[in-house]
Amino acid sequence: MGRGVLCLTRSAWEAAWRHLRAAAPAEGVGLLVGKEGCAQEAWPLPNVHPEPEVGYRAEPEALLAALRRADAAGLEVVALYHSHPAGLAYPSATDRREAYWRVPYLIFGLAEGRARAFWLPGGEEVGIEVRP
Ligand SMILES: [Zn+2]
């Protein structure tokens, strides 16, 4: 995958926004899955963080089931996404410390109505391309 741009379809983009707005004031988390480097669907996951208004932790069994479902459907995990319900779309210190996926992290800042994507833990910003 190129390092410069995160591609997702408009329907995946809008589905992620809907999920995260509905989850507020808790943080929401999910997978963006698709093919050929472009996310086609947003798959919400339960946030089981003990303080879900300030952190996220994808429920492990749901995450495993989602990964298996993606494999079975021939889909790849294109990005991880989560929200900052009261904050900006930049990675927190916790986001950097706990990062381990080798795909971009797409962060939605609900308070500013924006999303940004980053490689973590490094913090290099990735452009976002929303396709029709
Ligand atoms: Zn975060």
Pick out its properties.
alpha/beta, Cytidine Deaminase, domain 2, 3 helices, 7 strands, binds zinc ion
What does this structure look like?
With 132 residues, this protein is α/β, with parallel strands linked by helices. The chain has one domain (5-131): Cytidine Deaminase, domain 2 (3-Layer(aba) Sandwich). Helix content is 25%, strand content 36%. It contains three helices and seven strands. It has a seven-stranded mixed beta barrel with strand order 1-3-2-4-5-6-7. Strand 6 and strand 7 (124-131) form a beta hairpin. The chain starts with a strand and ends with a strand. Zinc ion binds next to strand 4.
| CATH fold-type name | Cytidine Deaminase, domain 2
Helix percent band:
25-40%
Query: Structural class given helices, strands, pairing?
Result: alpha/beta
Shape: globular
Mean residue pLDDT: 96
List low-pLDDT spans. Answer: none
Give a count of the beta strands, DSSP E runs of length 2 or more.
7
The number of helical segments is 3
What is the C-level CATH assignment?
Alpha Beta
Head-to-tail CA distance between termini: 21 Å
H/E topology pattern = EHEEHEHEEE
In percent terms, what proportion of residues is strand? 35-45%
* Major pleated sheet: 7 strands, mixed, barrel
Under the CATH scheme, the architecture is 3-Layer(aba) Sandwich
Bound molecules: zinc ion
| Integer-rounded radius of gyration | 13 Å
CATH homologous superfamily descriptor: Cytidine Deaminase, domain 2
**Major sheet: arrangement of strands:** 1-3-2-4-5-6-7
